[in-house]
Structure formats: structure tokens, C-alpha cells
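ok so heres the complex, two chains, lmk if somethin looks off
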Amino acid sequence: MAMTVEEIAAIEERHPQVFHRPAYKRFWPLLLIAGTVLYLAYALWFFSLPQVLRESHWERLPLFLSQWISYDLQPEFRLDQPQITPKYPRFSALGENPNPDWVVRNPDGTFTVRIDGDAKSVTFDKTRATIIANGVTVPISLTGGKPVVTGPVPDWVTVHDDEIVAKMGFVGEVRVTVDRVKVRKRFLGWANIVFDTRSPFFGKSAGEVISLIVSGPELQPGTSNLALAADNIWNNAQWQHGDVWTKLLQTIVMAFLGTLLGGIVAFPLAFFAARNITPSGLLSQVLKRFFDFMRSVDMLIWALFFTRAFGPGPLAGSAAIFFTEIGTLGKTYSEALENIDDKPREGVLSTGANGLLVQRYGVLPEVVPVFISQTLYQWESNTRGATIIGAVGAGGIGLKLWEAMRTNSNWANVFYMVLLTLAVVFVFDNISNFLRRRLSRTLHDYNRLQAAQG
Amino acid sequence: MTSATIHSEATRQQADAWRRQTALRRFYTALGVGLLLIAMCATMWFADEANAGHFFDRLPHILDFLSWLVPKDWSDVWRALFDIASPNDKGTQEFNFPLGRVYIWSGFYIPEYFELMLTTVNVALVSTFIGFVFAVPFSFIAARNLTPSPVLRLVVKRFMELLRAFPEIVIAGLFAAIVSIGPVAAIIAIGLHSIGALGKLFYEINENIDMRPEEGLRAVGANWFERVRFADLPQVLPNFMSYTLLRIEINVRISTIMGAVGGGGIGEELKLAISRGFGAKTLALVLLLFITIFLVDQFSAWLRRKLVGEQAFMMSA
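and the predicted structre for the whole thing:
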């Protein structure tokens, strides 16, 4: 059912606004795309992106990500001493007297370290070492002054001048020299998340700990086992639960306090800033510029100023959010006020009520749900924002996160804090969403009633 | 019994019920406000306790702290802004610029602070672009009315939620260790966050479109891409643009903060100037930052008003 040429022409003639648009309207998408491409080329040059990408270390990414959810143990075996004994680094996750079952002293005097069961292991004494992985056995002779692989070298083994490195993927690696064997074995999970190695509860199963708490003898005379356990968890040296949770609470407090105080200050000011309510146009303009100013002086600037004024901590962060929120909430409140329906106001005015009463009964019922909703929205977004602000010294979890990353070694700790932050953001999002939905229902009912009454 | 007494009886009952309801409502409001006040006082106390310096101890010194802000020589502010050598220079960092001018044309140069500001703005623009490019396809997949598969929708929605909630500073820190500390790590961090933030707003717009054009295209046998391209996109593009502009405003602010924690740009310089008490430099930086953010906000507001009218400024209740 093809159209004839006349029909097409007729349609074109009927809808000139579709088929014969002015040139600028037809070409602006093209211009926009061309401009974007040009800008991206400029940005590529500006950030010297090719060079940055060439010099980046993407191979670190999987390593870092695996460190988020795992920990490793690195026993070292000295071969140049009379007796071969495993040595663990200080503060190893195994505590002071480690005797893991994956390090085996064989009857013939050799040692076997099982890195992944029997499939990936290393067996050695002072003269030779045997590495088994990926179904291949690699014998190494240690007698010639430097380690030598006797036989073919598989591609997962690297032979250096005085060291042989066998990489076994996620589970770990083995480094062999003539005078020592170094093993790194990686475990999935977080080590000592509940009790650290100094705690008397360390290394005990959940059942044992519970029975100790319920009915065991006092491990530390004078304190109940429950109090001791709680104290040990709270002061866990490796994970610093107490400090992390306190900092997290600080972040929450910063967002709450800053937003609430901002709302309290912005509330009366918004009435004087709203064009339809203010007693003077000049005052309205001045207040609006004031709100713009508070918003445009960035939260960062406020945070830095207050950190200098009050010292680092949540007080500085709250003050920074407070000052920014005066601007943001003042602006949104006054815009909400300018959008109200004037009829209820006129109604109250016609009864001869004074100015304050007019606002109370003619304006407030209409805007309060909107105000609360916007405040909740800001609260939600400030809970996220407070994390970043913290990193410049304004208190909260941000600084702790930043420090844990700066040292670059403790990604598991970083991930623990990230999970807690995510949980907090999630919970507060849901609280705020729930409250706003309730409010919007109220608003909806109100609007429907108004519509029904004309 | 006359009808008048029935009437008054009913009215009285109604008035009583109304009074009871109002009393209950007032009670709840008072309770809510009371709890809020208690929470406010408790959190104030907590924040004050946890802070390094306490509010009332520090309050009298607020003005001392402001006094270093006032430079001895006001023209130093302009000199700092335009990278002109100051006669007050004693060889310290206070009047010196490690980076210095960036010469473009023989005598024409960009002063250090403008270059840093440019970096910050570019970080914001590029990361918003990244956010936009990925958020658009994601939003079509996440919209209930456009994608029939609930599993796909859920996966994309959760993914965007994760991107949104993940602290930017951690992503920045992670990538700082991979692509070196600087603006590129900040771009990646803010870009990823923007994907999540824009994606959520975008799919909510998608779910509210008029489905008739879509049905029309479906009737003539258009596939998914054609339907999205010709039925959905023209309806939502102005709103998408409006939200993207809003995102640019937010991202300029975040990129400034990222700068202060090592993401390059003006944030770092500002942090240094404030922590070392360089009054003239601080004033120059604050002025520059203030004007930039103000201009970005005003420009974005103007463009949004042109794109979608007053609707751009109505927040959803």
C-alpha cells in the first residue's frame, strides 16, 4: 500500500513545521555532536590521556580487588640456620604461636607447605625444593650457590638470577632462594574480624566463646566475660570497630545536624524571599542573592574554613553542611512558596486575620509537606556528601577511609568501611523515601480534594 | 423531634470529632517536634564532644581566625589571581606559584589559578559526559515500560544503585593507585557516580512517557532500538539534557572537593592556602571558585529554562 508522490507532497504541505524546519533547528543536533567531539579531543589533550593510560598499572586492579575480600599469610623458612623453622611476620593474622595445619613437617626432615591442598604445594629441605602446581612438578636444586630448575620451566615459574618465583594465581606464590623459602598463601575472607590476636577469645569457635561468656570462669579477674568480649571486639586493633562506628555516627550526625539547622534558618528567611509573600521586593532580592552566595561558596570552602576555625571534627563538617544548606534549602523553600495556590491565602485574609495568621493558616498547610520532602531529599544527599567532606578534615568516616587508602595496604579495611557506608546510605535512603512517599500521598490527597472542590 | 435539633446534634458530633482529631494531630506534631529538638541537642553535643576544638572555646577566636584572611596589601589578591610578581614576596610560598603561568601565545598566558580552575571544570564536564553516555542506554533498559525482562531491569537498577551509593572517594583512591594520583582518577570516580545518579533520574523519566508513539511504531513492526530511538528519545531528550546540566553543577562542586583530596585542580591549592593561612591566595581562590560556580549555575539554569521551561525548577514532592 505505497503512497503516491502526490499524497507525500500533500502530507509535507500539511505539516510544514515537521518537514520544512528552519536550518538552525535542523542542524543543531549535528552542531551539538560536533562540538562535543571537538571538546572531547581537547580534553584528551588537556589531560594527556594517552600518556596517563600508557603509564597506568591496570594489572594492579584485580590484585587490589582481591585484597578487598581476602588476606594473606607469609611464612618464611630460613635454610641457612641449623634447624629449619617457619617464621611469620609480626602481627600476622595467626597470632603469636601459629601452627597452621597447611605447614607440615615431614618425618624425613623436609617441610611441605600446602598452598592449595595437595594440588599446589612446595616441599623442601636445605638441598632441594619441589614445587607442584597445575599438574606439573618442578624440581629445584639449591646446592650450586643459586637455585636451578632441573628440567623444563613452565610459564608460571620465573627464574631470576638468585631467586625462583612460582606464581599460583589467587591462592599465592612461592619464592625460593638458596637460603630461604618464602610462601604467600591467600585466604578468602576477613581475618580476625571479631577478635584480634591479643584477645583471650582469639582462635576460639563461636560455640566456645558463647559458652565462655555464659558460664565460663572469668578470663580476666574482675570483669565479666561478656564485658571483656565486648571490649575486645570494640577495641579490635586490626579492624578498629569502635573507631570506625564512631566515625560513621559522626558522618550521620553531620548530615542530620547540618540539614536540620539549615532548614530551621532557611524556613523564616524563605517567606521574606518569596516574591508573592515578602513585604519588600528589595528584601526578596537581597535574600535571594544571599542564598545564591551561600550555595556558590562551595561546601568545600566552608568545610576548610570551619576546620580551621573549630579544628578537625564533626563540628566543622556540620557547620559546613549547615551553611551550604541555608542556601540550597532557602532557594528551594522560596521557590515552593512562589508556586503556591493563592486562594487559601485570600480566604484567610478575607476573614481579617493578621499577617502571621495568614501565613499560618493560608500558606503553611500547603507548603509544609513540600518543605519536609525537600529537606529529606537534602538530608539523603548530604549523608552521601558528608563522606567526601570528611576527607578534608571535617570529621566522619571520610578521613578514615582516605587514610586507610593512602597507606595503600589495607584494602580489606577500606572495603569494610565502604560496606558500612553503603549500608548507612541504603538505610537512610529508604527512611527518606518512605517518609517522602507518605508525604506525597498526603500532598496527593490534598491536591485531589482541591481539584474536587474546584 | 424537629429537624433543627437533629441537625444541630449532628453538627455537634461532627465538631467534637473534628476537635478530637485536631487535638490528636497537634499532639503528634508536638511529639515529633519535641523528638527532633532532643535529637538536635544530642547530636550537637556529640559533634562538639568529638571535635578537636569545642564550639564555645573557639567562638571568641572566630574573628582572630578571620583576621589572617585580610591581606596586608589588597592588590595581592589580584596579583595572586593573575600570577603577577608581588613586591611583598619574601621567597616563601605565600606569593609564589610552583606551577606558574601557562603560556599559550607569545605574551598571552593562563595564570596558574585559572589553569587549575579549568582542570576542575574539565573534570566535571568530562565525567558528566561519561555519566550521560552510559546512563542513557542503562535508563532504557531499566524502564518498566520499555524493557519486558524483569531480571535485566533489576540487574541494571541494582548496578546503578551501587554506583550511586559507592563513596566516590574510594573509587578515586583505588584508581589513584592505578592511573596515578590526579584528575584522571577523579574523572573515573565522578563519572561512575554520575552514571548511577543520572541513570536513576533518566529511567524515572522514561517510565512517565506517553506510550502512544511507541504503540504506533510497534504496530508498523519497529524493533526495540527503532522504538526507543523514534518514540522515546524525542520525548525524553529535553528532560535528559536538563538533568545533565543540573549534574554539571553538582559535578563542578564534587570535582573541587576531589581536588582537595588529591584529584588535581583548584581544590588542592585552596586547601593548602587555607591550612597555611595565605590570606591573599585564599581570597583569590575563593573569588575565582565563587564566580565560576555562580556562572556555571546561572548558565545551566538559563539553558534548562530554555529546554524544559519552569518545570526544571519544580522538585518532585
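quick notes: The longest strand of chain A covers residues 180-188. thats all i got rn
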